[in-house]
Design goal:
Largest sheet: 9 strands, antiparallel
Number of helices: 0
Shape: elongated
Number of strands: 17
Strand content: 35-45%
Order of helices and strands: EEEEEEEEEEEEEEEEE
Amino acid sequence: MSSRRATTITGSLLTACFSTVMILSYSAAADDQGPGSGKGGKAVDEAPAGVKVTTLLPEKISVDNSTQKTAFSATVKNEGNKESGDIRLLVVGFDGLEVKNVEGCTAMAEKNLPAGSNSGFICSTGNLAAGESKSYDVEATFDLSRTGKICLPVQTRDGKKTYWQQGPVPFGTTNPSPNAPATPLLLGTDNKPVAPGGDELPKTGAGAVPLGLTGAALMSAGAAGLWWAGRRPRREH
């Protein structure tokens, strides 16, 4: 992303998906995360013939109850039979999940974050050969008193096309463990918040995003679809 002008992030429909991931403890070993999963992912813009990019998140991770820290990997893969071309992976946090760092990637400026998100990083993946994948170590915090989601769009380098997008997909548990050292979370499971003396979910997030605007939240029967705020540069003819 240029320091003079933010790279335009366009063409991306952020569809709220509900697939399950357990969140690894911040210090937990990668072996504890289980297999990678593309739950909550879908193709968006048409990719070139022979190119099929996808992403993977661990099936399970866990949050340290004392520090709220968690760590996991995010993977982008070319499952096609041709090179991907120059692509980038975005790692974006929503609600109670805030992405603190993605190894080798650049933090997004606050003004360029997608509507409704609280954090984001841009990873310049480059050109992936057929069958090749690249993984990134993600450090985040998760407020267990809230729900939390993550989103992994895979775009062209200029951000004009989004070939694939996983999420925003929730992390969560229906069985909170406030007295344990860590709380395991599942990919695609809505979090039942850990709150002293109550099961009521704090009112956060979805309703705060204004409706009727580019990048607005689309509300429907327990699910929300978030449009990626697109700002295409105006072309002179």
